[in-house]
Design the sequence.
């Protein structure tokens, strides 16, 4: 009995329009919204833990047993916790806690650091424009704070004590503190909020929700009603920078510039008049920077 002839292959069929291409392997890892929520909780926990530990270590090394036993009652502890040196040490320790968690994200999630942290290269001109453009939003935040203070919500007394203590320092010491206050929070906080969190939330939530949520959380971790309002407003600008540029570095530059303007108060011995004298130049420069940033195109994903 003869075998049937083998079927000859027909002509190749054209691909069906709209059909998905064949999978070429496993999808690359990515940050999901749930990752962002978990990372935020862990980062804030690390920040608070290291801040408390640093405060306790400093108190233990600077005070004798009799002095520690004399600290009884919430009023005494609150007065001690508002000492400028303790606030500076606990703030630095908290920022390092944020940075530690952020730097562990690429290894924990297997997402490349350039994607997880958003530190893609950017043109130097964009960094300059970002720093100048933040001045307008900084003034907007100051106006909001002034409105709250007019309604009776005042800044904590610890801020005045810090400025008074810093004004007694030498000029080199004030310069070192101002530079550190400008750069350390800018790097640590931006890598978390505009780096990791926006990377996790932008694709699923969209720019409006992701930028709004990160801005509110950014204001929340400042733990102060007056400063939190100003930080939330600045967070909106920083989120837009990250979305438009596709990189976290313009956000770092803008954040550092905003902190540097506030740090100029230190060179005036804590006088607020110096900051107020920068109002008109800051407004003009900030508006010009914002106009120039409109030409920055969002990179293709």
Sequence:
């Amino acid at each position: 009995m003869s075998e049937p002839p083998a079927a000859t292959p027909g002509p190749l069929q054209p691909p069906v329009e709209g059909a998905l291409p064949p999978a070429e392997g496993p999808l690359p890892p990515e940050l999901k919204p749930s990752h962002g929520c978990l990372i935020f909780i862990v980062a804030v926990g690390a920040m608070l833990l290291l801040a408390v530990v640093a405060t306790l270590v400093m108190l233990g090394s600077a005070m004798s047993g009799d002095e520690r036993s004399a600290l009884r009652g919430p009023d005494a502890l609150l007065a001690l916790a508002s000492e400028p040196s303790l606030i500076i040490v606990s703030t630095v320790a908290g920022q390092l806690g944020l940075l530690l968690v952020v730097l562990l994200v690429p290894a924990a999630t297997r997402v490349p650091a350039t994607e997880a942290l958003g530190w893609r290269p950017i043109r130097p001109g964009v960094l300059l424009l970002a720093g100048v453009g933040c001045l307008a939003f900084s003034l907007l935040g100051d106006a909001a704070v002034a409105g709250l203070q007019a309604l009776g919500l005042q800044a904590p007394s610890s801020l005045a004590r810090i400025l008074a203590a810093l004004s007694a320092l030498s000029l080199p010491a004030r310069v070192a503190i101002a530079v550190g206050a400008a750069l350390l929070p800018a790097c640590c906080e931006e890598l978390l909020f505009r780096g990791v969190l926006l990377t996790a939330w932008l694709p699923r939530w969209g720019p409006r929700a992701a930028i709004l949520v990160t801005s509110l959380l950014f204001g929340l971790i400042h733990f102060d009603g007056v400063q939190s309002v100003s930080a939330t407003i600045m967070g909106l600008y920083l989120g837009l920078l990250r979305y438009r540029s596709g990189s976290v570095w313009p956000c770092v530059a803008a954040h550092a510039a905003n902190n540097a303007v506030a740090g100029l108060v230190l060179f005036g011995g804590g006088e607020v008049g110096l900051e107020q004298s920068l109002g008109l130049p800051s407004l003009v420069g900030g508006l010009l920077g914002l106009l120039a940033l409109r030409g920055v195109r969002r990179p293709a994903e």
Observations:
- Residues 128 and 253 are 7 Å apart (CA to CA).
- Residues 171-205 form the longest helix (35 residues).
- The chain has 13 helices and no strands.
- Confidence is low (pLDDT under 50) at residues 269-280.
